[in-house]
Queue: 2 jobs
Job 1
Amino acid sequence: MFFKISLMVLLVSTGFLNAQAEIITANSICLHGKAKYPSDFTHFDYADPDAPKGGTLTLAAIGTYDSFNMYAIRGNPDANISMINDTLMTPSEDEPETYYALIAQKIEYPDDYSYVTFYINTNAKFQDGKPITPDDVVFSYNKFFNEGLPQFKLMYKDVVLKVEALDRTRVKFTLKNANKETIVNLASLVILPRQFWDSHNLGDPLTVVPPGSGCYTVKDYKMGEYIVYQRLADYWAADLPVNKGQNNYDAIRYDYYRDLTVAFEAFKAGEFDFWQENVAKNWATMYKGPQFDSGKIIKEEITNEIPQGMQGFFMNMDRPLFSDRRVRMALNYALDFEWMNKNLFYNQYTRLRSYFVNTAYEAKGLPGPEELKILDPLRGKIPDEVFSKEYNSPATDGSGNIRKQIEQALALLKDAGWEISNRQMVNTGTGVPMEFELILNDPSYERIALPFQENLAKIGIKMTIRTLDSSQFQNRAISHDFDMIFANYNPVFYPDSSLRIIWGSAYTNSSYNIAGVHDKAIDSLLDKIVENQDNESSLLWYGRALDRVLTWDSFVIPHWYLNRFRVAYWNKFSRPAVLPKYDLMVGVASTWWVDPAKESKLPKRNSKN
């Protein structure tokens, strides 16, 4: 998906456009509020401008790959191939939705958002040495629009009227019904080299390495097994403020493993350098041994301030079984988070209760007057509980006894036309038993699915668990060929137009609207969120109103979150004293670096092909 961008900036000039619109010219953009860094900043606070370059970072990737095109509709691309390309502007990782000059050295737009002009840095060049020009920006936009993922076209088809290269340095997008978020999204456009992509379809898998516009290029690979990225010694943007003290490794290598368990054992054996743990039990029990005791491997928790997205078991709204909200709510009562947190997760997690956790848009308490103005016209089209109850995920006492929750689930199911007969939950009209399949893409997730399955069985519901390989899982997710799926939505700092892709009726056939939601009331809230991008006060109320409707609609059985990175790494790295709020900055665009003195004390690693 394409990044959002925002602009704190200098006001340089004022001109006349339509009704005397104010013209804003700047080298950064912030979606809401003001950016942290002034126009003459030299580096991000979380980057050390004197960080040494050199060494190799070796990481693990799970699964396989058969393509070098991450924008293709088909194929299984290397997950890190995006690092070969730059965007017009690039984000800061210690402030929300704020981006700074990269390929575009400055940006110009009026406050009515009727156009945006990007000024291309005359030093910018592709990896093959050819200059990046306004014509390449026009080409890239058209390529994504005509051949890329359908979401791109849907986003811009009624908004971008024309894209044109004005001269050797300027490219202009003429806009209609746009807002600041539109400018932000366009500023994050990936720039592709026309000399390569003119003869390749962006929607097709790619088995040759394309030239890019970024700092790293593919040096070596064996399809599906490993890939090595090499930092370009002559990368034109190496000394720009947004890159100073970053991209410190000479090479980044990814070795592919089919299984997380095998990969972790390889990590402990010294086959690669860094591991981020996502399983609480592993973190509590498996990070032990002589390598940890001796300090050769460091185990560390690093706090962050990242907004939390939604992770959980998503139900497919195209399945008749899940079209009834009462059924969806009943299933939620079968997930005993408190027992799982105590017995499986070592009390490390907090239950999700919102789609905007860790932001101002998380709905708490009952709706106030401003929200009611939004919600009242939707009465009868949204859940009644929106008006009378604060949403919280069902809770238990953690003992494993969920009799009270079972009673609530049974009452909902009875009201929806289901009853227990011969220890099976059956439809009272058809006699058909309630059965469905949950698909997973990782065997380690089975341990969280099994207790859920057992609790469902207590009320006569049969849930089959099927774990698929990454390709099968991806294909079934994209085609919506599932009943229930383990999935997650990325966190957002602000409600914005990306939510249309996730929840909008126009995107029910896309891989982003995972649950396949098509609801006119939700569509109307999404429309208002897009319309109010430049009104922070109204956006706050619309965001909270949407949160209430989504949570009470129960499309997802929410899981849990952690506000810390759990990491382990071989003790060969140093890093700045200041860490970013929203990222680890270990791999791509890393602010960490290989410390030769530390690395010399570690066992020598076997050389790899």
Note: The longest strand covers residues 56-62.
Job 2
Amino acid sequence: MLGRTDSRGRLVLLLAVFVVTAVALVGRLAWWQVIRRDDLAAEARRQTSMRSEVPSRRGAIYDRSGVVVLAATIERDRLVAAPDQLSAARRREVVAELTTILDLGEGATADLAAKLAADRPYVVLARGLDPQVSERIRAGLAAGRLEHVSLEAEPVRTYPQRGGGPDSTLAAHLLGFVNREGAGQYGVEQFYQAVLAGSPRVLYAQRDVNSRPVPESAVVAEAGIPGTDLRLTIDAGLQLAVEQELLAAWVADRAVSVSAVVLDPYTGEIYAEASYPSYDANAYGTIATNDPGRFIDPIVSHVYEPGSVFKMLTVVAGLERGTVRPDTRIRDVPKLTLDGGRTQIANADRRGKGWIRFEDAIAYSRNVVAAKVALGLGETTAEAAGSLHEVWTRLGFGGLTGIDVAGEVAGLVRDPAVNEWRQIDLANGAFGQGVAVTPIQLATAFAAMVNGGRLVRPHLVQAIGAEEISTAPAAEVLDPALSSTLIGMMNHVVTTVPFYRDRTLIPGYEVGGKTGTAQIWDAERGAWKNLVYNYTFVGYVARETGKPDLIVAVEINEARPTVAKIGLLEMPVMSFELFRRIAHNAITTPGLLADRPSEPSGSAQPAPAIADQ
């Protein structure tokens, strides 16, 4: 007889196993269904939905009138397709139809065919379609000639004003542009990106089979903030006139580039700022491919040796130290030997004018006299170098002006306290060699010379939305008493020298300024470029004697003179002639100028004549 196989213990054990298993399953189910419920739901939403950002309306940019639109955002269509839904034969038919509608050339047709050959659920075929083209595509879809393509709305930044030269838009360099991702690039667009762009609207929506959002399922997570409009200090009419003048000078002088800025010396407002060659901001993609360097604004981003225009900084240093005054007589010689006979500098014409008044030496741009004044700023070369360098930095050279555009650079100013200057370094610095500056720095420094000694911050934005921007406080960097003397010396330059007077003066207005012609160092060759120079003029124009209204700075970059003699480098359009044209356009622009502060009072303190050095 077989023994019994059932056992009460075994039954209890089996029941316990079932109970434990059941409890474990229920616990695990509770873990997923209760404790991890939110995490699982979020993961499910992540797999079946998508987050997207819809850019807010980007703020428009206007000129100072608030009427002329310089930059705006419009709605355009982009053409998209689902190539994976098309057979090979149908793809060829779609390519043929779109080639006709989009008026494509052979290369563009090949690119279109390559995009449609990709076995992908979503590709972008074209952007920024004109409304007429969009209508033709819709007609093709309705007629069945097209399928598995669609139109999607997208914002497009546009620059509606034509520039002063071919293939350019107005104020392209100072405005910059906006890329396809909605980010401002260069100029005002980049500097004021956060203000102009606002914040995007954030949406969550279910995905379709092609991983595209289903519009009906969209839920707004963040409403977004529209961008704010900007009103600039630029006068659109003057800006256009300046660009046209720059184009004419660029063509005539066969220069690498020509630049100019028109500045209010009392507020720092920029009325016009341009360079040529310029570019069409509506076609930035083509420029980025072919010549991205075109985007760089020379006014704020190009540094160069300014030449004799820098002699006005030496004037300031000499007047402040009391070593010279305008009527001080200094002996001008053809060349000056320095550093114990190891180095020397010379006048451009290799001649000397003998004993000459300091103001005449500046008018006739005598290098030797400027060097003598610089060397006389201290008892030692180190002391004199420190004095001149301090004037440079006090007037903003070697630092940023704070202009509200992207890409400003500080220039190159060697500190004699860090790297000791020889006599030749001090002499060269006296007439603008061995230092690298930007045109906006020159304009700002000259503004301080004529406005009573205040270093203004140049700026381009007058209002953000309805809020006017208050002018930043200007630091006093010069004795106000110097201004009248400096104004007089600048006026003396253009009224004394016939070469300047005949092509700089404007009937009915007072003008003054200083020229600069500088050699250009070729770093690759380790030598000066042959007969290629940078030409600069910075000056003022005034409706009333001694009361400058505007500062105009021009630079003709890397131009070859048509007449090259010792002491004479003539071009079809000289820097001071270009100054006169731009200054006349500016001073006669209707409604541009308001009443000015009273004439700077006082004059420089007299100083004794200095002996021949």
Note: The longest helix spans residues 8-35.
